[in-house]
């Protein structure tokens, strides 16, 4: 029962470097999401996907790109990392885009940009 | 956009004490959710509320959907060490631009 798996768990970047966070789910969920968590801010939606090959902007999309080439994977990319992107990133998935279906979260990726 | 304010931001209690926290919104929601985040893990859903005035329990946890639809409350009775973590409320308004909005979190610490 893997559920939602995120890699890596920790990463340190220098300003301007790029990286990709990988999220994989084995529950055959249609919907996948990327959130960032900052102290005192709660969880904020970056981008989401309603199915393979689709992506959409969330609340705080600037500086990030995403891709959903396969149903089970949702990638979050930072092309040119900035210190403001230091955060904990969570991937989540759900079977429908509804509160009747709960979100399943990964265990998070802690990213520091120096 | 909508904002959810949770209070208190943090709590330090002794094992066995009851805990109360609340969440208030600047606008109404149709659904309220309460999540718990253990250290180093992602949030896990505890309770979902779908109707104004609804009171729902999950073991020692009880949550209520406020009558005004702008607030929700979570109570934990007889706290135990495994209750430590961050508790998030989340609200959903499913008419039009559906979006789940998370609160700022309440960090619960239990003093032995």
Question: In summary, what is this structure?
Answer:
The complex is a heterodimer of chains A (114) and B (112). Chain A is mostly beta strands and 114 residues long. Chain A is built from no helices and eleven strands.
The assembly state of the depicted protein chains is heterodimer
Distance between the termini of chain B: 40 Å
Outline of chain B: globular
* Secondary structure: number of strands of chain A: 11
Question: On the 0-100 scale, what is the average pLDDT of chain B?
Answer: 91
Largest sheet of chain B: 6 strands, mixed
Q: Helix count of chain A, per DSSP?
A: 0
List the uncertain runs of chain A. none
Describe this structure in words.
The complex is a heterodimer of chains A (114) and B (112). Chain A is globular. The mean pLDDT of chain A is 92. By secondary structure, chain A is mostly beta strands. In chain A, strands 2, 4, 5, 6, 9, 10 and 11 form a seven-stranded mixed beta sheet that branches. Chain A is built from no helices and eleven strands. In chain A, 0% of the residues lie in helices and 50% in strands. In chain A, a hairpin with a 5-residue loop joins strand 7 and strand 8. Chain B is mostly beta strands and 112 residues long. Helix content of chain B is 0%, strand content 55%. Chain B is built from no helices and eleven strands. In chain B, the strands form two sheets. In chain B, strands 2, 4, 5, 9, 10 and 11 form a six-stranded mixed beta sheet that branches. A five-stranded antiparallel beta sheet of chain B has the order 1-3-8-7-6, with no helix packed on it. In chain B, a hairpin with a 7-residue loop joins strand 9 and strand 10. The N and C termini of chain B lie far apart (40 Å). Chains A and B meet through strand 5 of A and strand 5 and strand 9 of B.
């Amino acid at each position: 029962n893997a559920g939602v798996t995120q890699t890596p768990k920790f990463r340190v970047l220098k300003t301007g470097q790029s990286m990709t966070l990988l999220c994989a789910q084995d529950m055959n969920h249609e919907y996948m999401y990327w959130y960032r968590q900052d102290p005192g801010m709660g969880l904020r939606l970056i981008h989401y996907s309603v199915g393979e090959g689709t992506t959409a902007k969330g609340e705080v999309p600037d500086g990030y790109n995403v891709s959903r080439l396969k149903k089970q994977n949702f990638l979050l990319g930072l092309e040119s990392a900035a210190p403001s992107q230091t955060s904990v990133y969570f991937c989540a998935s759900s079977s429908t885009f509804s509160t009747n279906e709960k979100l399943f979260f990964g265990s998070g990726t802690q990213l520091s940009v120096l | 956009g909508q904002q959810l304010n949770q209070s208190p931001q943090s709590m330090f209690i002794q094992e066995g004490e009851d805990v109360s926290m609340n969440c208030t919104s600047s606008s109404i929601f149709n659904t309220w959710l309460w999540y718990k985040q253990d250290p180093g893990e992602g949030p896990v859903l505890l309770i979902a509320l779908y109707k104004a005035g609804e009171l729902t329990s999950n073991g020692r946890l009880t949550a209520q959907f406020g009558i005004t639809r702008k607030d929700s409350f979570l109570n934990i009775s007889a706290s135990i060490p495994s209750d430590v973590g961050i508790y998030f409320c989340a609200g959903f308004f499913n008419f039009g631009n559906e979006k789940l909005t998370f609160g700022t979190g309440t960090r619960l610490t239990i003093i032995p």
